[in-house]
Automatic annotation (TrEMBL):
This is YwqG family protein. InterPro entries: DUF1963 (IPR015315), YwqG-like_sf (IPR035948). SUPFAM superfamilies: Hypothetical protein YwqG.
Length: 289
């Protein structure tokens, strides 16, 4: 969907009076489509889900707090992504690799979840990478299939539950209309396939993640009202806009991706860190119905 189509949809949902504000909030996103292939048929360095990772010599497999290896989830070849990166925030080349504890599946509402995932950036060209075997323990636990990734550009709007929409102070009627608009956008996105995306806005399943990222990465537990009711929230909340969605991965059963009960994984990063190619302090949230 482009901005013109989006504007027409906004108007048709009775939101003409806030159309300009909503269009100003719209963001460019990169929608991911998948092509299931055996790992042996995917070139080294190609963007893919699952399979075995392509890494530099001397790579050390990331582990969780218990010393168990994290599952390799995805690698993005940034040379392939760059033509679609209209935000110009991603590095122009290299590989981004994503790892996650697919057995324990941390939800991301606990500060102690921080070692249940990892994002690694390799500046090497694909010709300098090697495809390595997975840890042998995965033979007992099960491994993921693989699929090649392709990209298309897509414009998206903030989730109904987000600080961006809260700040518009919509009345009840317009709030309901925006909720319906989001339902339409999600329905259309689902018709186009699973909703994997890079950047833009998340397709929420449960609730706002911007505030959750900000609170939990500052040590507040968000699995109940504890963090949200903490007096520190008022000051911390100013930093919710620092966070941006880096990668959203839907459940893709054909390769074994199942996040909770047909949920999604959301990898988050502060915009400043992304610009500086600093992937030391991301966050991950799992949501499902």
């Amino acid at each position: 969907m482009d901005k013109k189509e989006l504007e027409q949809l906004i108007e048709s949902n009775g939101l003409g009076s806030v159309s300009k504000a909503l269009l100003n909030l719209s963001r460019d996103s990169i929608r991911i489509t998948t092509d299931n292939k055996n790992d042996e048929n995917i070139n080294i360095g190609r963007s893919k889900f699952g399979g075995r990772p392509d890494v530099p010599q001397g790579f050390l497999w990331p582990q969780n707090d218990a010393g168990q290896p994290l599952y390799f989830i995805c690698q993005l070849n940034l040379n392939e992504v760059k033509p679609f990166d209209l935000s110009d925030l991603l590095p122009s080349s290299g590989i981004l690799s994503f790892f996650y504890d697919a057995l324990e599946q941390p939800w991301g509402y606990d500060p102690n979840d921080k070692n249940g995932f990892r994002i690694l950036f390799f500046s090497q060209e694909p010709s300098q990478l090697i495809r390595i075997e997975e840890p042998t323990i995965f033979l007992e636990q099960g491994t993921f299939g693989s699929c090649e990734l392709n990209y298309i550009s897509e414009v998206c709007l903030p989730p109904w539950e987000s600080p961006f929409i809260d700040n518009l102070n919509l009345d009840q009627e317009k709030s309901d209309n925006y909720f319906e608009l989001q339902q339409q956008l999600t329905g259309q996105a689902v018709q186009d396939g699973l909703i994997h995306r890079i950047q833009g806005y998340p397709d929420n399943i449960q609730g706002d993640m911007y505030l959750e990222c900000q609170l939990v990465t500052n040590g507040l537990y968000c699995g109940d009202g504890t963090g949200y009711n903490n007096p520190a929230r008022n000051e911390l909340e100013k930093g919710v806009y620092d966070w941006i969605l880096l990668l959203q991965i839907d459940s893709e059963e054909e390769i074994g991706f199942m996040w909770g009960d047909v949920g999604r994984l959301y990898f988050w990063i502060r915009e400043k860190d992304l610009k500086e190619k600093n992937f030391e302090n991301p966050w991950v949230i799992l949501q499902c119905g």
